[in-house]
Automatic annotation (TrEMBL):
<dbReference type="InterPro" id="IPR009132">
    <property type="entry name" value="TAAR_fam"/>
</dbReference>
<feature type="transmembrane region" description="Helical">
    <location>
        <begin position="221"/>
        <end position="239"/>
    </location>
</feature>
<protein>
    <recommendedName>
        <fullName>Trace amine-associated receptor 1</fullName>
    </recommendedName>
</protein>
<keyword id="KW-0807">Transducer</keyword>
<keyword id="KW-1133">Transmembrane helix</keyword>
<feature type="transmembrane region" description="Helical">
    <location>
        <begin position="161"/>
        <end position="185"/>
    </location>
</feature>
<feature type="transmembrane region" description="Helical">
    <location>
        <begin position="46"/>
        <end position="70"/>
    </location>
</feature>
<keyword id="KW-1015">Disulfide bond</keyword>
<keyword id="KW-0472">Membrane</keyword>
<keyword id="KW-0325">Glycoprotein</keyword>
<feature type="transmembrane region" description="Helical">
    <location>
        <begin position="82"/>
        <end position="104"/>
    </location>
</feature>
<dbReference type="Pfam" id="PF00001">
    <property type="entry name" value="7tm_1"/>
</dbReference>
<comment type="similarity">
    <text>Belongs to the G-protein coupled receptor 1 family.</text>
</comment>
<dbReference type="InterPro" id="IPR050569">
    <property type="entry name" value="TAAR"/>
</dbReference>
<keyword id="KW-0297">G-protein coupled receptor</keyword>
<feature type="transmembrane region" description="Helical">
    <location>
        <begin position="116"/>
        <end position="141"/>
    </location>
</feature>
<dbReference type="InterPro" id="IPR017452">
    <property type="entry name" value="GPCR_Rhodpsn_7TM"/>
</dbReference>
Length: 360
């Protein structure tokens, strides 16, 4: 998400209304209407660049490994992993297309890439953030059927359904983000205030009216997040009931006589996958909740929240894209084995795509 960079009451100052001095600097010093620039010392800017560059590289590298692993190894070609593959692509795009420009904006407190690209950057940022939670919502639905209705899972979650989920997760956020930004629906009803007191040359941020921020946050975060929490809570209750029933000797005997021990192992694996992806969902909510809480309350507080706070929360949200591959590495043995094969170049061997990364 894009944030306000300078004081909202002072950012729209004409450069010809102020005398230039060492204490007053502008993003574009010889352009009227330029944004004020906060000039941090080199001792702060360099560590910030190093830290943010490391986050970007980890995000790109980690999600690239996920994409290569699921794409290359045939054993990983299943409905849940297709959704994970698509979500990793979103995180990769966020790390490569959005975060580098956000880094320059955060450190320099100015936008040097033009007004049109600012709108494109803002649209892509909102689109990818919204698409992430759409993917997590559909993953929760997939896990619900896998754990709670395993006998009909393959008919409910076939490839056609999964690809439809992926298309919806990309298309709806893209339409929502680009229409809102390019048609300026976010400032509808407050255009005069925005252009007189907020907008300035060298700034790239999105201004929300009270109505716009509530509607957009509900679509992008709160409604899908609530749906996910409800589904995973139901999965937890059913998985706990199943675990208790497995302890019963009679239930074990009946289960094995009907479906065999292999089915019991499969059910256990499905519950573990649901737990792991539930943790991924939890990481997402922890990373993005502070930002969405602040961005919703800010208009109702007359935009008094410090811009540096919102900027920090944006990067805390970006960290979600960095953490996802780390969660896979910690909980999924197949990810660790795939990572080793990729690192040593074994994926280039003949028939390496048929390597068994885990026992069925």
């Amino acid at each position: 998400m894009i944030i306000k960079e300078t004081s909202r009451r002072e950012s729209k100052m004409k450069s010809d209304d102020l005398k230039f001095s060492e204490s007053v600097q502008f993003c574009y010093e010889f352009i009227n209407g330029s944004c004020l620039k906060i000039n941090w010392p080199t001792s702060i800017r360099i560590p910030m660049y190093i830290f943010m560059t490391c986050i970007i590289l980890m995000t790109v590298a980690g999600n690239l490994v996920v994409i290569i692993s699921i794409s290359h190894f045939k054993q990983l070609h299943n409905p849940t992993n297709y959704l994970i593959l698509s979500m990793a692509t979103i995180d990769l795009l966020l790390g490569s297309l959005v975060m580098p420009y956000s880094m320059v904006r955060s450190v320099e407190h100015c936008w040097y890439f033009g007004k049109l690209f600012c709108k494109v950057h803002t649209s892509i940022d909102i689109m990818l953030s919204t698409a992430s939670i759409f993917h997590l919502s559909f993953i929760s639905i997939d896990r619900y059927y896998a754990v709670c209705d395993p006998l009909r899972y393959k008919t409910k979650m076939n490839k056609c359904i999964i690809f439809s989920m992926i298309l919806v997760s990309w298309i709806i956020p893209a339409i929502f983000a680009f229409i809102m930004v390019f048609l300026e629906l976010n400032i509808k009803g407050a255009e005069e205030h925005f252009h007189n007191y907020i907008d300035c040359v060298g700034g790239c941020y999105i201004f929300f009216t009270k109505t716009a921020v509530v509607v957009s946050s509900m679509i992008s975060f709160y409604i899908p997040g609530f749906v996910m929490l409800c589904i995973y809570w139901k999965i937890y209750l059913i998985a706990r009931r199943q675990a208790r029933s497995i302890k019963d000797v009679t239930s074990q005997f009946q289960c094995q006589s009907r479906f065999g021990g292999k089915h019991q192992i499969s059910r256990s694996r499905e519950r573990k996958a649901a737990k792991t992806l539930g943790i991924v969902m939890g990481v997402f909510l922890i990373c993005w909740s502070p930002f969405f809480i602040c961005i919703v309350t800010d208009p109702f507080l007359s935009y008094t929240l410090p811009p540096i706070l919102i900027d920090a929360l944006v990067w805390f949200g970006y960290l979600n894209s960095t953490f996802n591959p780390l969660v896979y590495a910690f909980f999924y043995m197949w990810f660790r084995k795939a990572l080793k094969m990729i690192m040593v170049g074994k994926v280039f061997y003949p028939d390496s795509s048929r390597t068994r990364l885990f026992s069925e």
